[in-house]
């Protein structure tokens, strides 16, 4: 075999995440591989980098969440496996791999196996189109936002498949409840993103990030969150993302006190772990989309911080959003299913629809002071009216508890 003389491509701290791709392409060119093989190898290395980064983040987050909740609840949390419990994710992985895989007699074996695998795939595909940095966009699709929501719909299919294939009533009931929640909260999630598309004029996620790259008065970021319509849409997106990711207080699909473990009741071992892996990867995806749409993606928060690699800013913002999820989980109790559905259909969806004309007026009035004067009342007045109506007439009546005489 004749080795070609190919200089190793230069890279900076900004392009550090591209190092595995550059290394694979350089090795293939070094051995004289054809261009199509070099392209395939580079793409595979880039995909492996994204998967490896977020699988490592999944393992780290499983530890951070348990330690955070323990701190909130005045407990120690995992502290036996390794220093400060740092090896707890490794111990959990070994435990799940060695546990017995039990399949119910009446279960559909093939679908029962496919459901936990299928729930992981959409999250990985969604992360593949996420702009993680200025030079780190795994797949820069023209219709990236549409692709994100399209593959996200596969999650409902996998949840239904898990409940139906288990051959038991409890998983089926849990799956139907989970699907009703996920479909209901997907509507405000998607509607709140429409204003971003209208203002940006593109479905490409990298274009949405670039559109938020300037500063007001030289120091306030021009993120969509710092506009009236963007603040309302971002708040709605944030609340809906919590429900879409099945996080507390909207973690009804796995309400242990009500339906055992929802659609995962008949799963054990590594299959059970795959459901949690899919949930955490989906959490990264939906939080990353929120960062991209409303928090400027990989843009720096201040002009003089532009020297920091952009992928660090993306993951810093992602960490802040996810830590807020953990804080909410340790603070709020779980809501009932009727409260969950009522809140989505009577509050979030009407307010999400209002962000569309607000975004249109923001653009047509020049994005200045006049835009603030027009859009703020358009959003604030209905918000107050909906809040009063929901609290006074639509919320459950106050309950009276009668205690037995001692």
Report on the architecture of this protein.
The chain is mainly alpha-helical. It has one domain (83-392). Helices cover 65% and strands 1% of the residues. The chain contains 14 helices and two strands; from the N terminus they run H-H-H-H-H-H-H-H-E-E-H-H-H-H-H-H. It has a two-stranded antiparallel sheet. Helix 2 (35-72) runs parallel beside helix 12 and helix 7 packs antiparallel against helix 9 (228-244). The model has no long low-confidence stretch (mean pLDDT 86).
Measured between the Cα atoms of the first and last residue, the distance is 92 Å
Stretches with pLDDT under 50, minimum 5 residues: none
**Residues in helix, %:** 55-70%
Helix/sheet category: mainly alpha
Output the strand order for the largest sheet: 1-2
Task: List the defining traits of the structure above.
406 residues, mainly alpha, two-stranded antiparallel sheet
């Amino acid at each position: 075999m004749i080795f070609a003389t190919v200089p190793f491509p230069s890279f900076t701290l900004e392009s550090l995440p591209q190092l595995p791709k550059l290394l694979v392409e350089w090795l293939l060119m070094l051995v004289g591989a054809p261009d199509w093989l070099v392209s395939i190898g580079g793409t595979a290395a880039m995909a492996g980098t994204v998967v490896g980064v977020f699988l490592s983040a999944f393992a780290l987050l499983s530890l951070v969440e348990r330690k955070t909740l323990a701190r909130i609840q005045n407990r120690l949390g995992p502290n036996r496996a390794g220093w400060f419990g740092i090896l707890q994710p490794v111990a959990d992985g070994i435990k799940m791999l060695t546990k017995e895989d039990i399949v119910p007699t009446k279960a559909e074996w093939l679908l029962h196996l496919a459901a936990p695998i299928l729930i992981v795939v959409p999250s990985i595909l969604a992360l593949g189109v996420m702009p993680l940095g200025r030079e780190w966009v795994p797949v820069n699709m023209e219709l990236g936002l549409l692709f994100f929501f399209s593959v996200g719909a596969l999650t409902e299919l996998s949840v239904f498949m898990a409940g139906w294939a288990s051959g038991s009533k409890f998983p089926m009931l849990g799956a139907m409840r989970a699907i009703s929640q996920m479909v209901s909260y997907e509507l405000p999630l998607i509607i709140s993103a429409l204003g971003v598309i209208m203002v940006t004029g593109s479905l490409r996620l990298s274009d949405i990030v670039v559109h938020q790259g300037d500063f007001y008065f030289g120091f306030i970021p021009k993120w969509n969150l710092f506009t009236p319509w963007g603040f309302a849409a971002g708040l709605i997106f944030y609340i809906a993302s919590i429900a879409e990711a099945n996080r507390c207080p909207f973690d009804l699909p796995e309400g242990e006190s009500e339906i055992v473990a929802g659609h995962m009741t008949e799963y054990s071992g590594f299959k059970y772990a795959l459901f949690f892996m899919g949930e955490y990867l989906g959490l990264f995806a939906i939080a990353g989309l929120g960062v991209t749409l409303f928090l400027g993606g990989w843009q720096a928060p201040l002009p003089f911080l532009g020297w920091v690699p952009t992928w660090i800013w993306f993951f810093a913002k992602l960490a802040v959003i996810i830590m807020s999820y953990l804080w909410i989980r340790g603070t709020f109790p779980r809501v009932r299913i009727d409260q969950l559905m009522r809140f989505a259909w009577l509050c979030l969806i009407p307010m999400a629809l209002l962000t569309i004309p607000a975004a249109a007026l923001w653009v047509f009035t020049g994005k200045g002071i006049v835009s603030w004067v027009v859009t703020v009342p358009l959003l604030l007045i209905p918000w107050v009216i909906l809040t009063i109506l929901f609290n006074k007439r639509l919320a459950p009546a106050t309950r009276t508890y009668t205690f037995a005489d001692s």
